[in-house]
Amino acid sequence: MIEIHKKIVLDENQKPFAVQIPIEEFERLEEILENYGLSKLMDEVVNDEKLSIENAKTYYQALKTNVES
Predict the structure, then answer these.
(1) Which spans in 1-69 are helix H?
(2) Structural domain contains residue 42
(3) CA of 7: how far to CAs of 17, 19, 39, in Å?
(4) DSSP 8-state assignment for residue 43
(5) Is the pTM of the predicted complex or chain greater than 0.90?
(6) CB proximity list for 11: less than 8 A, separation 6 or greater
(7) Is 30 a member of any domain?
(8) Which residues constitute the domain of residue 62?
(9) Distance (Å, rounded) from C-alpha 55 to C-alpha 20?
(10) 7-32 residue pLDDT tens
(11) pLDDT tens string 48-60
(12) What is the Cα–Cα distance from 52 to 55, expressed in whole angstroms?
């Protein structure tokens, strides 16, 4: 488990309203979340139809054309 060195930021009434963490730990948390999200997306499409190389090229070329339009 990742260790998080947090600092609690208090408002003028001494109530917590934010947390500060070192940038390296924040970037690691981002990476963990992105990997988790990617793995969930991969799980969702594991049983989807697979495209042949030619069909995939055609499909992605159509996407590229639509974005450029």
Answers:
(1) 23-45, 53-68
(2) yes
(3) 11, 6, 31
(4) H
(5) no
(6) 17
(7) yes
(8) 7-68
(9) 48
(10) 999 999 999 999 999 999 999 999 99
(11) 888 899 999 999 8
(12) 5
